[in-house]
Amino acid sequence: MLTHTLFALAHSEVETICILFATSAVDMIRYMEEEWDTLITSIETGELPPWEGIQHVREYLQPHFPPRQNRAAQLRVIGKATDQPGWLVRIWPMLKTTISICSGVFSVAVPKLRFYLGPNIQLRSLGFATSEAQIATAYDPSDLNLFKATSRDIIEYLDVDKEDNASSIVPPWLIEVGKHYEIVCTTQDGLWRYRIGDVVEIAGFDPTDGTPIFRYFERRNVVTWMAGGILTERHVTAAILAVQDTLAPIAEFTAFIDSCSGVPTLAYLVEVHGELCPEAAKAPVRLHKELCRLNEEFDPQRMRIPTIRVLEPGTFGGYRQWRIEMNDSGAGQAKVPVLMWDDAAREWMLARVRRELGVDSNGGVVQD
Fold first, then answer.
1. Residue 38 — φ and ψ, nearest 5°?
2. In whole angstroms, what is the distance from residue 104 CA to residue 101 CA?
3. pTM, whole model, 2 decimals?
4. Where is 355: in which H helix or E strand?
């Protein structure tokens, strides 16, 4: 990503940024901040930095990267990102649109991305796609979580309120507005009734051709049992976003079930934008109340107060890079789950905790 960023930064005429995930766009901004001096020097001299991973393509890239002293001077005057919104527009004055996947768990990065884009740059959805198939296209440019089912492949809908088998699959003309369905697709490339695992909520039908319009709702079967009730991905996400005014604006998060004390506890790992709020120590108690509000089956007496571990800035971007290197996979597969079950990944994150918020055994709020 750094090499792509360097080439883009060398040009002031960039009009569109198209990047797979909104979280990746935030990673790009962080890389620009961290490597600012190196990037500017490279643009000024026309010499590519000695970064790992580009040795095999360096000789092909170098001829396309001449010195640009004037551009380097412009960027030095602009300087690194500040607390003022619209920094990316100062970098690229002709920027008009940024296109990215901004729904589901990636929506958490949207406020920070909008901050750096400023109020006049259009943020548009890239659509609803997976590694296996293109499920839907963006339907309304102003709504980042509204999609129109594709006509390229066959999209069917598995009713999540019925038995989990083929008899519960519903064709597009029988689905109901407001109901939830798991996407099932049959593709021209050979997949047959392939379950994507994503649940959508039907919003309506396109009046021009009757094609279903839907919103991403949650991943299916990302659940666990806790305190007498079912804890879903949606509960985990909605609860932490609801306490941002007490904690801090959330840049990104994940969570895991902490059983070290013998009683399962929901533990959040978060990266925040800016400083913690003055009353951040109260966030775990608010989080507990919010989880119980979201699912009335939860027993407040049996559910322990969640913990919140605030991570060092850039942890999630570093995690994605670590996963790519560990699995030798593409960037599209380096996703951060809402609930993390991988012990190695969890330990990697825990090694980068900057601050912990929780409660002691007597119910008093503590800060470490």
1. -65, -40
2. 9
3. 0.73
4. strand 353-359
Per the CB < 8 A criterion, the answer to whether 129 and 99 are in contact is no
Boundary residue ending a domain (124, 149, 167):
124
Alpha-carbon distances of 333 from 75, 132, 160, 199, 337, rounded to whole Å: 33, 12, 26, 19, 11
Domain end (from 172, 190, 219): 219
Residue 164 contacts by C-beta under 8 Å, 6 or more apart in sequence?
A: 158
Closest by Cα among 266, 236, 262 to 250: 236
Tally of residues, the chain: 368
> Whose CA is closest to 311, among 280, 352, 340, 277?
352
Q: Is 14 in the same domain as 143?
A: no
Tokens representing 16 are 């569109």
Q: How far apart are CA 141 and CA 164, in angstroms?
A: 34
Q: Are 93 and 12 in contact (CB under 8 A)?
A: yes
Task: Look at the block and give the residue holding tokens 């990267």.
Answer: 65
Q: Which residue has the tokens 């390229």?
A: 152
Q: Which domain holds residue 299?
A: 223-367
Output the tens digit of pLDDT for each of the chain's 368 residues.
Answer: 788 899 999 999 999 999 988 888 888 888 888 889 999 999 999 999 888 778 888 889 889 999 999 999 999 999 887 667 899 999 999 999 999 988 887 888 888 899 999 999 999 998 888 878 888 999 998 899 999 998 788 889 999 888 888 888 999 999 999 999 999 988 887 878 888 888 999 999 999 999 999 999 888 766 676 666 777 888 888 899 999 999 998 889 999 988 776 667 889 999 998 889 999 999 999 998 888 888 777 777 777 889 999 999 889 888 888 887 787 666 555 678 888 888 888 899 999 999 999 745 443 334 44
In SS3 terms, 157-180 reads as EEECCCCCCHHHEECHHHCCCCCE
Q: Indicate the angle between helix axes 110-117 and 22-34, nearest 10 degrees.
A: 50
Do residues 237 and 356 both lie within one domain?
Answer: yes
| Spatial contact of 263 and 248, defined as CB atoms under 8 Å apart | no
Verify that 227 and 355 share a domain, yes or no. yes
